[in-house]
Write a structure and sequence with these properties.
This protein has helices spanning 84-90, 125-137, 157-166, 186-193, 209-221, 250-259, and strands spanning 9-22, 25-32, 44-48, 59-62, 65-69, 72-79, 97-104, 115-121, 143-148, 170-175, 182-183, 201-206, 225-229, 245-247, 272-274, 281-283. The chain is of the alpha/beta class. It has two domains: 9-104, Beta Barrel (Elongation Factor Tu (Ef-tu), domain 3); 115-231 and 271-286, 3-Layer(aba) Sandwich (Rossmann fold). The strands form three sheets. The chain has a seven-stranded antiparallel sheet with strand order 4-3-7-1-2-6-5. Strands 11-10-9-8-12-13-16 form a seven-stranded mixed sheet, sandwiched between helices. The longest helix has 13 residues, at 125-137. The two termini are 22 Å apart. The mean pLDDT is 94. It binds flavin-adenine dinucleotide and FE2/S2 (inorganic) cluster. FE2/S2 (inorganic) cluster binds at residues 234-237, 239-244, 274-276.
Amino acid sequence: MATTTRTWRQVSARVRTQREYGAGFRWLELEMPAGFAAPVAGQFVQLLLDPPSPVLLPRPMSVASVSKKGTKLVVGFLYAPVGTGTQAIARLEPGSTIGVTGPLGQGYPLDEPGTPVLVAGGRGVAPLLMAADVLAKSRRRCEFVFGARTASLLVGLAEARERLAKRGSKLHLATDDGTRGFKGNVVQMLDRLAPKLAGPLVIYSCGPHGMLAAVARWAMANGARAHLAMESVMACGTGVCRGCPLPRSAEARDRVLATGADAAPLQGNPEWAMCCTDGPVFEARELDWDRVE
Ligand SMILES: Cc1cc2nc3c(=O)[nH]c(=O)nc-3n(C[C@H](O)[C@H](O)[C@H](O)COP(=O)(O)OP(=O)(O)OC[C@H]3O[C@@H](n4cnc5c(N)ncnc54)[C@H](O)[C@@H]3O)c2cc1C
Ligand code: FES
């Protein structure tokens, strides 16, 4: 079981920029106050609107970029305004403030040996571009598979192409309807790509749960390791409310039982992992994909 290092803080951040990103998504950048730890790829934060707010609870958001602007730490998010909370976030003007708790959860273990294959679906592209930047800093090129139902949903494609080219990484596009790149899904793309790559493969993936389940099954069937960024409806984000369970695999359950389920009280129990503290990034063999919703 992963251990939670509690480096998170609750702070008030300043909106630096907010803009349309295409395909119905928005890009938000927050300036963090001094003392906020730089998140790693795969981690998330909880965004809590200042009062008066239309929503009571914070909204979880994956970190899509981390940069330094002068002395300030700037954290970026790619998000879809789907409901009351995210639509209120979309109305925030530069200069306004928002509460941030973070960085939260376990990020991608980017130091695992093997050929890194990054598999993105939709807005999952953003945290994986951040992962590609980190890999490039340690002189590791990656294969970047980016899939969507149709070309217009390959969100931020121009930026992905430019950033990956600069880092010597290779972009492989797949669309279900064949409007851009390979005609098929990302798993079919993996089938074509894998024989050309030096093993072992280590996959990092972010996207809808259906895609992640298919990638996890592919990895387990093909002897690859895969680290998948999961989501769940969350309240606290810190392991307290027990509201974000994901079903553990039998293998993971037995390991938790053997190591003592009470060892880390803010994490899950033998049957259920907590998405916010055990995850959100899980290795494929940690979860029971037949019961993941
Ligand atoms: C770890 C994590 C990272 C996330 N990262 C991102 C991100 O980078 N970009 C992004 O756009 N969204 C992300 N989400 C999803 C985002 O948190 C939800 O879209 C948001 O909470 C919805 O809040 P709302 O008030 O706008 O919608 P609500 O009015 O609460 O609900 C609107 C719709 O969104 C669905 N929804 C609510 N909460 C979630 C949730 N946690 N996950 C998925 N669907 C939800 C509801 O079922 C409903 O259909 C992430 C979620 C998690 C758990
Ligand atoms: S959101 Fe509260 S335990 Fe995960």
